[in-house]
Amino acid sequence: MTPEQIKQAVEALIGPDKVRLDGEALEIYGRDWTKIHTPRPRAIAFPRTTEDVQAIVQFANQQKIALVPSGGRTGLSAGAVAANDELVIVMDYMNKVVEFNAVDRSVTVQAGMITEQLQQFAEEQGLYYPVDFASAGSSQIGGNIATNAGGIKVIKYGMTRDWVLGLKVVTGKGEVLELNRGLIKNNTGYDLRHLFIGAEGTLGIITEATIKLTRAPRNLTVMVLGVPSMQDVMEVLKSFQNSMDLTAFEFFSENALTKVTAHHQLQRPFDTVTPYYALLEFEAENEEVMDTAMQVFEQCMESGWVEDGSISQNETQARNLWSLREFISETISHETPYKNDLSVVVSRVPEFLKEVDTFVEETYPGFEIVWFGHIGDGNLHLNILKPKAMDKDEFFDKCHHVSDKVFAITQAYAGSVSAEHGVGLVKKDFLHFTRSAEEIAYMKAIKQVFDPNGIMNPGKMLDL
Amino acid sequence: MTPEQIKQAVEALIGPDKVRLDGEALEIYGRDWTKIHTPRPRAIAFPRTTEDVQAIVQFANQQKIALVPSGGRTGLSAGAVAANDELVIVMDYMNKVVEFNAVDRSVTVQAGMITEQLQQFAEEQGLYYPVDFASAGSSQIGGNIATNAGGIKVIKYGMTRDWVLGLKVVTGKGEVLELNRGLIKNNTGYDLRHLFIGAEGTLGIITEATIKLTRAPRNLTVMVLGVPSMQDVMEVLKSFQNSMDLTAFEFFSENALTKVTAHHQLQRPFDTVTPYYALLEFEAENEEVMDTAMQVFEQCMESGWVEDGSISQNETQARNLWSLREFISETISHETPYKNDLSVVVSRVPEFLKEVDTFVEETYPGFEIVWFGHIGDGNLHLNILKPKAMDKDEFFDKCHHVSDKVFAITQAYAGSVSAEHGVGLVKKDFLHFTRSAEEIAYMKAIKQVFDPNGIMNPGKMLDL
């Protein structure tokens, strides 16, 4: 079918002016934050309701047209890229609150709602949606769910998966399922909801989600600690976790701190220079909690695990300390970073990091490495920066070789080659480093069950 | 194959004296706590390793022999019953700790470990496994996972699902999968772990699990409050939840309290008689928390939502107050109860309870109803007691008619016909009240993917 024929057919189903074919739309809605692939979709559809989405999926099944569900397109694995003549289903106009219930502390929203809007909505109700990350201002809740987004509060609040009480989806076969309908307890067979979470739109399209909210945290307080080694970072983590509840435990290297303070004209948290820094956050609900935090801090100092530290006295200071960690990604984006999103179990982080570090340094002595990440969850972001003199193509080519070896190390540590960024197109060839051949075969068979014609985001995550 | 042939063949695979055919074994391992079906297994196998289990499953595939995975057999939906010539795989001897890691706060155990032993192991490490329920002294962790067990702490700690970091399973095809291997963050395709959780052994057999532990709660304090109506119970819940973190919020009716205090010679929490009672628990970590709790209590009194209350001053008192709730099930077991395990979203509990109550009272005026449950999760246990004069068969026959109508009401409220007890044989015919025809069709197709010969716990949850 030509783009014009698709436009005509889809608009006959969901109404006029709901399909765009112009170059601007094809360009915008064909790519995500990866910017590796050249966008080349056939047409862009803008549904308003679950029924609209269902009509499009049924039409695509009849015509064997590939579909790409499109949220905020902030993904880093090209899960929402349309580079292969697909029909893109844009969820932007499905962004309403469907229902809120204060007793249940739950809200049902359409999948196209921006993450930050959901956070704000929760706040207006005196509640809290705790999944948070740098792209919250653009990403959509449907995309968060389809990629099981993580972020900076996972140690306390878990992943997006942990906040989904119900999903309305249109399967690849064009059937509407209402999965779990907001229930907290419901042991009636396979929990298909969890299959759609993290499926990256390969089984169907999420059109609505019922999200659990929680009470807002109180008096969030931030500490940044200077730590001599990764092993010590783990001791610090263990000491604090055994004495209090943390809402975040992040780390970054001296290299990262130097860059971020220079680029954003930020103050260092203290003068002492250490190879690593831990940032931790907790609810200082009362003086006792604060006393405990200070005691643990002093124990860590006495044990030599911490060399210096800084603690926020108010919200502004807390925000400033967070900036040291949160601005890293943006800071290094100017140096053409090659990004990896790895995880291992928390206890193996130090040896894993050391092994990767040593490998990259020895094999590619000119490459600069910036480490940061969510250490409380075993999630490390390895960023390799392009040497200024090196050509971009040569750099990425070399990095691809780095990946193979880094992923082999990850496999040896029983880790994940994509902790929170998903698979999409970018990690598809590396999936086998984390999932066994048998697992991948079962995944393909499950895909077949929900999407027998293979129209849902084909080529993403799996090749059939 | 005759039982003797099976014994010979399986023992050739996993070693001598690992299969029993005696009447005692067939009787014990053929039934669970439901005691409705007459046990009639063909043979009972006692594997020691995942390899043993795999060998049995591969053998069963070749011979088309039905398998029943068997844990503590404490289920209330006949998910572990073997009444149809099956080979039972008993996990009792696979009960070891495989690995513990203090930094990760995780422990890998074989599936046959008793829940209470896991709780004790955690305690010995200064940690806590929070999933708890009446049968924890007999149930096994593999069975907990296969049925996604809930219990009395779900409001704070969630279901068993929320504590599983990794699973080793043998699929119905006889393949060993290591799912998620203890990682906190791992977004690499469909999370098959969540498919096996709650699958009731119909997709394969869980042989090992990596379980997350957490810090032990501090100074758990219990309040029992006398409440005039279910609507007021919800107001009490909302008031406390908005001000503090609860670890439990249970309820029971005056009828339940009368019975349990009489049967166990327990003291009433206070003299005031109210239609309902709320039991709530929280960590009184410091005086501030206690002050908050007392303030909310007083607000609830002033608003008329609470008429009287009692609070524990020490661990013994806390335990005694818990007894009022926890002994109900055992108390009414002497009166031949017809049990239902229902859930709706929390906010709809009062109208739902009233509608069910009214229906049972009007249609069966002689039946006595005892309500209790986990109100903070929307989970209600409806117990109908046999009138003394009525014959047992007549009673259960009538109750079956009650079920049909109660489940229809549950469906109208978008609730679950099995909140935490699973489906097994007992709820299979009622599955459609909670899951749509499309969902059930997808479930069957998924079963087909993992168990193409239909040997895994056939007839449980689904009929193919």
UniProtKB/TrEMBL annotation, chains A, B:
EC class (word): oxidoreductase
MF term (GO), any: (R)-2-hydroxyglutarate dehydrogenase activity
Catalytic activity from the UniProt record: (R)-2-hydroxyglutarate + A = 2-oxoglutarate + AH2
InterPro entries: FAD-bd_oxidored_4_C, FAD-bd_PCMH, FAD-bd_PCMH-like_sf, FAD-bd_PCMH_sub1, FAD-bd_PCMH_sub2, FAD-linked_Oxase-like_C, FAD-oxidored/transferase_4, Oxid_FAD_bind_N
Domain of life: Bacteria
Subunit record text: Homodimer.
Cited PANTHER family: D-2-HYDROXYGLUTARATE DEHYDROGENASE, MITOCHONDRIAL
Record protein name field: D-2-hydroxyglutarate dehydrogenase
